[in-house]
Amino acid sequence: MEKSPKSPKLLFSFRAFLGFLVFIGLVALYMQRVNMGISIICMVNHTWVAENSKIYKSEMKLSTNLNKQETCHLAQKNSSLTDGQFQWPKKTQGMVLSAFFYGYFLTQIPGGWLSIKIGGIRTFGLSILLGSITTLLIPFASTQNIYVLLGLRFLTGFFHGPVFPSLGTLWSHWVPPNERSRILGLATSGVQFGSIIALPLGGFLCIHGFSGGWPSIFYIYGSIGLIWSILFLIFMSESPKNQKCISNQESCYIIQTTKKSPHKPKSTPWKELFTSKICLSIYLVGFCFNWGGYLYLTQIPTYVRDVLKFDIQSNGILSSIPFIANWVVIFVSSFCADYLITKKILSKLAVRRLFTGLGMYLPAIGLIFLSFVDCSMPYLGVILLTLGLAFNGCAGTGGFFINCHEVGGPFNGILIGIQNMIGTIPGFAGPYVVSLITANQKQEEWKIVLWITSVLYFFGCTVYIIFADVNLQHWAKVDDSKNVKEQINDEELNFKLLDNK
């Protein structure tokens, strides 16, 4: 009778430590991703933008007959603006905010392929290393030419693109399936924590930072990523077999439980990856989810300034509050999802549908209410933003994103890459569309943006719930008879590890 190694406790284990390392890496990654959203408020001469808007002169003429909304708008306008050196109209600002995502879009599928070829650890570490270097160069590029700046933001996105596809490969070698919701919940919460740190710190550095304020944001955020990635690449190995500072028991446990996944087929099933109903529904829900997610990520500081009329330091602090709530919910929802599945309270399919619904339907409703909030009720606006982004966290760790690991098997890295590639389209299309709709920085214009986002949330979630599946797809399986010899060798390796104890 086969003997299985004892399962080491997750707490204080090396796999939990790896989850923490990835968490720190994602903190650095998202500090670099969101830095432009807060920095641009200090970089742009908003007085110049306002005076060149189509409605500026008409507002001045009507200033003697103001209603409540207009009074709020004009009274708080000067205090909410921090004028910088760059005379960029709203369209140019949209280009600056979206340039990152053009590069990010291009390296999603190649990132999944690269992680298979050279390993998830190397791909993950190198992506953040190279992105950190380009982030450090942003202040210099900004003073040279707008196209140099756009090019560097494009390269930052290009280098960051393989990060999430590489994590699919990394988890498949390091994390047993029954622990993935918890460890992914810990690791991916770095996304929210990075935003929590970056926004208020960025608001502070805009005014009090060295090198003129806003450049210090890029220097500090880039340095954090650079230091982390160098240490990560030096000390981490691609698999438990070669990793130092891990016990034999835990190494054996990880190898045995992750090897239970089917072996990699000879070729990538590209046709099925682009025609399977479950894959198409994951791509669609990812697109709609990211439209809202990138709206929060890149546009919250601008919305808080344009509509709620907070000054730059308050802006940074208040813009981070929704991400704090989102971070908490991600932790809670990841454990709740695992609990509901392991205790057999709900089926895995029901959990994926439930958490995706909570993460998209509730924010959609919140955005509808938010569209009617103006600067006379600024804190109500912050509350609605917070509740919307908080519930948004349910869809990731308990919902559709985990689904990629379940249906894609050995191809989950490529599946995540395709999903991320399609999901990145809102990253560059969204800021540009928002800049066109909100050219005059009016609340009525932002209402259109919020309603578009709400409709996309409802549509994407509904389609996913209809076609959701949690079973390993037939195209991700292999003929077991072709892999008997390889499986026997794997079992011999496991018993050798046991014997070495």
Automatic annotation (TrEMBL):
Molecular function per GO: symporter activity
Keywords, comma-separated and alphabetical: Membrane, Symport, Transmembrane, Transmembrane helix, Transport
Lineage per the UniProt record: Eukaryota, Metazoa, Spiralia, Gnathifera, Rotifera
Top-rank lineage group of the source organism: Eukaryota
Domain Major facilitator superfamily (MFS) profile, first and last residues per copy: 21-472
PROSITE patterns according to UniProt: MFS
Entry membrane topology: Multi-pass membrane protein
Any one biological process term the GO annotation gives: monoatomic anion transport
Entry-linked CDD domains: MFS_SLC17
Protein name: Major facilitator superfamily (MFS) profile domain-containing protein
Intracellular or extracellular location(s): Membrane
Signal peptide start and end residues: none
Chain segments annotated as transmembrane: 12-31, 95-116, 123-141, 147-171, 183-210, 216-236, 278-297, 317-342, 354-373, 379-402, 414-434, 446-467
Main location: membrane
Entry GO CC: apical plasma membrane
Species annotation: Brachionus calyciflorus
Pfam family, one: MFS_1
